[in-house]
Amino acid sequence: TPSLKVEGVRSRGGQVVLQGESFPHALAHALALADSQGATFVPPFDDPDVIAGQGTVAMEILRQHPGRLDAIFVPVGGGGLIAGIAAYVKYLRPEVKVIGVEPQDSNCLQAAMAAGERVVLAQVGTFADGVAVAQIGAHCFELCRHFVDEVVTVSSDELCAAIKDIYDDTRSITEPSGALAVAGIKKYVARTGAQGQTLVAIDSGANVNFDRLRHVAERAELGEQREAVIAVTIPECPGSFRAFCLALGKRQITEFNYRYYPGRQARLFVGVQTHPQHDPREALLASLGGQGYQVLDLTDNELAKLHVRHTVGGHAAPGASERVLRFEFAERPGALLGFLERLGKRWNISLFHYRNHGAAQARVFAGLEVPDEELAGLPQALEAMGYPYWDETDNPAYRLFMG
C-alpha cells in the first residue's frame, strides 16, 4: 500500500496494521482480527451492500449524461465497482456496453470469464497496487459474468501514458489503477477503430507517492509509442557516433548510453523518438537495418527499461588516458548531432550518456581518450566548441564506479 494511504488513515486517527505481502494475506489477517476481537469486518468489494454502494457511480453517470452513451470503462480489482455499475446500467440502459480494464499482470476478472469460474492468479503485479487482487470476488463474479461485455488489459507503460493524458487534460494526477479506464479506452479505440462514439472512463483514485512520478514520466513516452529503446552495434572507431546520428536522420534522440571497451565493435543503448502513425518503431528498425546496422529492439524488454539503461558501463579500459566531462547545450532536434560535429574526430569517445528530459538544456556526460602529450591543449579545444563544460575526471563518483 502506498505510504500516502497509510499516512492518510493515521492522520485521521485510524490505527494501521500492515500485514502480509499482498491483499490475500492482509484479508486473512483482517478476518482473523475481526473474529478474535468481535469486530465487524467491512469488505472492500465482495459484499452486496458494498457493490450496491459502488453502483451509485453508474446512477450519477446516467443522470449527468442522459444522451447517447456507447460504453463505460471501469477499472477492475476485486470487482465491486464494475459489478455495481454493470448491474445498474444493464437494468436501465442494456444497450450501453460495460467494459472492464485490468493490468496485464493482474487480470483476475478476464481469467475468470475465460474459464467460466473464479480462478486464483499465481502471481499478481503490483504497479497498479489499487487493483492488485489475485481472485475476483464471489458476489462480484456472479454479476460480472452476466452483465460485463468484455475485459481489456493494458501494460504498465500504457498506464503511464494514460496518467500523462489525464494530467495534460485536467491537470490532475492519478495513481496507476486510477488511470486504468483511460488506458482501456485508448486500447479499445486503437483496436476497433471506433469513431463518433461516447465513451466514459471511471477515474478511480489519486493515491500515488510523489517519487513514483519519476518512473511514470520515464515510461509514458514508451506507452504512447512515441519512443523506441534499441541496442545498436557500431564500429569501434572515431566518427562512428556521428555516422550513426546521421543514419537516424531527423529523428530526435532521447537517450544515448555508451561505454568503451577494447574491441572492434561498440554497443550503444539508445532511445529514439517515434510516432505511432507518422514514424512508427517498425520504420526506425527497418531504416537502420537497411543501412547495415545490427539493431535489437528493447522497447518491450522490462529488464532493459528498468535496469540496464541505468547500468550501461563499467570501468575504463586498462591503460586508457581518459578525461570525463559534463556539457550543457540548448535542447532542440539535431542538437546531439551538432554537439558531436563540434566535438569532431580528434579524440576517441570512451564513455557517453545523454538523456532528453524535455528541458530547455540538454546534458551530456562524456569520456575522451586524450594522450598525455595533448592534455595541455584540451581546455582550448573545449572552449572552442562554445558549450559550457565541467571537467569531472577527479570526481570521486567517477573514480569509484567508472575510472
CATH class annotation of the largest domain = Alpha Beta
How many β-strand stretches? 12
- Indicate the CATH architecture of the largest domain: 3-Layer(aba) Sandwich
Radius of gyration: 26 Å
- Major β-sheet, in short? 8 strands, antiparallel
Total domain count: 3
Widest sheet, order of strands = 8-5-7-6-10-11-9-12
Structure description:
With 403 residues, this protein is of the alpha+beta class. The chain has 3 domains: 1-42, no CATH class; 43-221, Rossmann fold (3-Layer(aba) Sandwich); 225-401, Biosynthetic Threonine Deaminase, Domain 3 (Biosynthetic Threonine Deaminase, domain 3), CATH 3.40.1020.10. Helices cover 40% and strands 19% of the residues. Helix 3 (48-64) crosses helix 4 (80-92). The mean pLDDT is 89.
Can you summarize this structure?
The chain has 403 residues and is of the alpha+beta class.
Write the layout of secondary structure elements.
Layout: H1 3-11, H2 23-37, H3 48-64, E1 71-75, H4 80-92, E2 97-103, H5 108-115, H6 138-147, E3 150-154, H7 156-170, H8 180-192, E4 199-201, H9 213-223, E5 227-235, H10 240-248, E6 253-259, E7 265-273, H11 281-290, E8 294-297, H12 302-311, E9 322-330, H13 335-343, E10 348-355, E11 361-369, H14 378-385, E12 389-391, H15 396-401
Helix pairs in contact: 3-4, 4-6, 7-8, 7-9, 10-13
Keywords:
403 residues; alpha+beta; Biosynthetic Threonine Deaminase, domain 3; 3 domains; 8-stranded antiparallel β-sheet; 19% strand; elongated
